[in-house]
Amino acid sequence: MAVKLTKNEQKKQKDQLKQFQRYLPTLQLKKSQLQSVIREVLAEMEELRRKQDEAIKGLDSWIAVYGENALFSPEKSIDTLIKVKEVKKTYSNVAGVTVPVFDSLSFEDIRYSLDEYPLWVDGAIFSLCDIAKYDALISTLKEEVRLLENELRVTSQRVNLFEKVKIPEAKENIRVIGIYLQDQQTQAVVRGKIAKRKLTKVG
Description:
69% of the residues lie in helices and 11% in strands. It has a two-stranded antiparallel ribbon with strand order 1-2. The chain has a single domain, classed as Helix Hairpins (Orthogonal Bundle). The radius of gyration is 35 Å and the shape is rod-shaped. It is built from three helices and two strands, in the order H-H-E-E-H. By secondary structure, it is mostly helical. The two termini are 49 Å apart.
């Protein structure tokens, strides 16, 4: 981009350079914070998945009797006894990003007759509700990671813009303007000396 080769433009470029150099460390810090938080959240997700897998494995003892589920009519399937009512979330600010935080999970109060289901159903429902809670926790963390990664992408783009474009561009403009102004000053001095010689000769 062409710039005006003037002292005013030189000052403007120097002011912009100072602003870019002052703002860049803030962006770099934010980028670092976002990367750190994303790593922490991903690690938390992995831990929750591990616990969920353990909970699912804990159902192994029920697997054989789960086969009885097929004996129930569709409207009496065990799945129909568990229905998420609401996932409550609060919101928090992380490195300037508003992210969801899991608060609680509630289920529909579904009544069923003990005469129509075997005794193991109560334990199975409790375990499945526990597994559903892990799903809600992991889903909330996924949303948090998505939002943080979006912000990280934008912040990284700004860091690159400042580091690779704006700051080098401002420095180059200052250099070019400086050379031009120096040349102008040199030429003015030369012209002044020539004029002085001419005046001396005339005198």
